[in-house]
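Appendix B, Record 12. Input sequence as logged:
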Amino acid sequence: MISAQDINRLRQQTGAGMMDCKKALTEAGGDFEKAIEILRKRGQKVSAARADRATTEGIVLAKTDDANSYGVALALGCETDFVAKNETFQQLGQAILEAAFTYRPSTREDLLLLTPAGNLSIQEQITELIGKIGEKITITTYAALSSETVVSYMHMGSKLGVLVGLQGSRSPQVIEAGKDVAMQIAAMNPLAVDKRGIDATTTDRELAIAKEQARNEGKPEIMLDKIAQGRLNKFFKENTLLDQPFVKNNGLTIAQYLANVAPNLTVVAFERVAIV
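Logged structural output:
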């Protein structure tokens, strides 16, 4: 006979629902360890059953060290805003962030394999919560960044976060400038730091599009390459961070703004993490 006290005890240990705990204990013949294993297995089944669901809600978390030289950011996705606001879901997100910050895994896959609690990996912890909540939960994005100066920025609502790495100077003014640049990245979503970061496939595609557009506009054939190159340069200006007009002062590019803060200051890398 499974008592209400046993069910409540298992519920407190696992966070699973009352009926799920009762069924697991009954199936396990009252054995708590076996009941926990049953609940975990059910969580794994839920995870597999919902593998094709979209995770368009969730939270983004970011953290930098005290020296502002290293930072991590991640997006923990779920299916509904209701779960995104769930305290247990947010606590798991914070625990994953702390593990990433402490152990510094290189990839999302390495992060999932970490066992910061000593017995369950992060993937297993996620699977357990899937079993309790009944929704797909996944780390959709993980990013880490090291640089002379690393600044993080969280957009309102915790749905978007940015890490930006700067080099060339260190000071409180550089950190403030980094925050401005991180806000720019959040708002303008550049493709790369500068045009060297745009891959050849994208460059060739934009040139081809610009050339065809000019041809369709009736421009002389002899002028098409020059016109296309001009439009490609405009594409670079709009889509590469250092060439973008600074949103707080359109009279300056980001590169010029940083040079005004410190002559050699520039951005070397950035990560933009979002729930999409």
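The radius of gyration is 25 Å.
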